[in-house]
Amino acid sequence: MVHVSTTPVLALRGICKRFGAVRALTDVELEIHAGEVVALVGDNGAGKSTLVKVITGVGPADEGVIEWNGRPVRIHRPHDAQTLGIAGVYQDLALCESLDVVGNVFLGHEICTAGVLDEVAMERRTRELELMDTLSIRIPSVRVPVASLSAGQRQTVAISRALLSDPKILILDEPTAALGVEQTAHFLDLIERLRERGIGVLLISHNLGDVKAVADQVAVLRLGRNNGFFDVLTTSQEQIVSSITGATDNAITHRKAWAWEAML
């Protein structure tokens, strides 16, 4: 994939995170460019969730630098990340089942006119997002309660809410875990559409088939450290698995690669 700019939208340099005496992340590096899909993979306990919390401001880093379009920024709380243009869709989806689709899309960002909810404007904006049919998972109406929707339909609602803020970076945490085969295929098509819109995507997934299908780069975490950064087109699934399990130690090579790139 060819990037318009060599400067990443989001870059993490030497990120460290501690919980008491436990080092959850040590000198972690990561880059995401506009229109690029980066898969973050690793075994359970590798540090993926902790790194996402650093990026989203839920658990700020103890050390390291975060750069946004080449400039150092501080992400100390979720509002900081949202202001920059970082949005996320997580495994629990964080939907309110008693509300309808429109209510969930605008949850916390309701449109008010003269102090009254503008239901017409919110419904129109929801339809303009054009996601309700993207996954070929037809939602009967944007006014049905979310409790009545399937897993795939709920996923669509959660992504619509994330895109409402026009993010530059979208984090997708195990997005296909609750989807069937056909719904997963349509969801991967959606990721391609996000790429075409110039949105950088951080895909956290255990499904290497999905990763190979849509990702441009794969970043492997192992025991809270980088253990490889691979180009999907030139890397086999076996190589990625080897890095995840620790059969191959790429941590030193990876750090040298970042240092070399910084000199260019």
UniProtKB/TrEMBL annotation:
Keywords: ATP-binding, Nucleotide-binding
Domain ABC transporter: start-end pairs: 10-248
Leader peptide range in chain numbering: none
PROSITE patterns found in the cross-reference section: ABC_TRANSPORTER_2
A Pfam cross-reference name: ABC_tran
Record-linked CDD domains: ABC_Carb_Monos_I (cd03216)
Keyword Endoplasmic reticulum among UniProt keywords: no
Keyword DNA-binding: no
GO molecular function: ATP binding
Protein name: ATP-binding cassette domain-containing protein
Species name: Streptantibioticus ferralitis
